[in-house]
Please model this.
Amino acid sequence: MDLVIDYQILHDAAAKIDALESEIGIVTDHAQGHGLVPATGGNVVSTSLGAIGMALEGLYVAWAGPLRDAGTQIQQLSTTFRSIAQVYFDADATQAGAVQAGIAMSNIRDYPQEYAQYEQALAAWEQLDDPNNVPYYTADGQEHWMSVPRPTPPPVPGTTSTGPTGATTTVQQGGIDQYDPNHGPQITSETTTYSQGGQTYSETTTFGPDQGWHDGPVQNTTTTISHADGSQDTITTTYTMNGSATTTDVNTANGTSTTTTQTRTGWDAPWQTPPTDNGNTDTTTNSDANTPAAW
Model:
C-alpha cells in the first residue's frame, strides 16, 4: 500500500489552527483579572454591565485554565503539521527545481547545435527542385510523391522559463564556452524558484569559469538554497579535471550552523564524508555564541 502525504492540506490546517489559537488567546487574555470583558468597540468594566458583566467575567476566569492548556496542545499540533508539510514540500521542490534547472540550462547549451542542424536541413530543402513533389520509392520499387515542408528553426531559449512542474528558472550566461563542442554559451548563474500553497523553495547557483569538458562543463559552484521552514543551505563545490572534488554544505537553522563536508577521488568514485580530528563529520556552531561548538 502506498502512503500519500498531502502537504498542502497539512500546511493549510496549521494556518487554521494558528487562527484558532489566536481566538483562544482572547479568552485567556481577558481572564487575567482586571475586571474587563470584551464588547463591541472595545473592552468594558464588567461591573458596569451589572449581573451579566459579572457572569461573563466569571465565565472567562473559569475557562481560562482549560483553554490555556488546549492552546498549548493546539500549538504543538500546528507545529507538527507545519513541520511535516515543510519536509514533504521541500522534497518535492528539490526534485522539481533540479529537473527544471537542468532542462533550462540544457536548452541554452544545446541551442547552437540545434540551430546548426536547422541550417543544414534548410540548405538541403532549398536544393529541392519542387518541395511539393519530392519522389520516393517503396520497398517494391514503386515511385511515389510527397511534400516536404520547409524546416523551422528551433525556438530561442529565453533567460527565464517555467516547466510543467511549475518551477521557474532564470539563467544568466557569459560568452562562448571555449571547451563546449557545440560552441554553446558559458552559464554563469541559475536561479530556480518553486512555490505551492504559501510555501516557497528557492535555489541560486553561481558557476565559476569552465576548466574543461567532461560530459559537460567542469565548473566550481556555490549554491544557496532557501527552504520553506526558513533554514538555508550554502553549498560550495570545487572540481578538478581528474574528477576529484570537495563539497561543503553549511546549513543554518534557528541560529545554529551545521557544516558537512564530502569528497570524492574521481569521476566515478562515490562521495564520502571524511572524519574530523575527533572522529565526527559535522561541525555545529551557534551564531549567538562567541565560541563554536564541534560535535
Confidence is low (pLDDT under 50) at residues 284-295. The longest strand covers residues 185-196. The chain is about 35% helix and 30% strand.
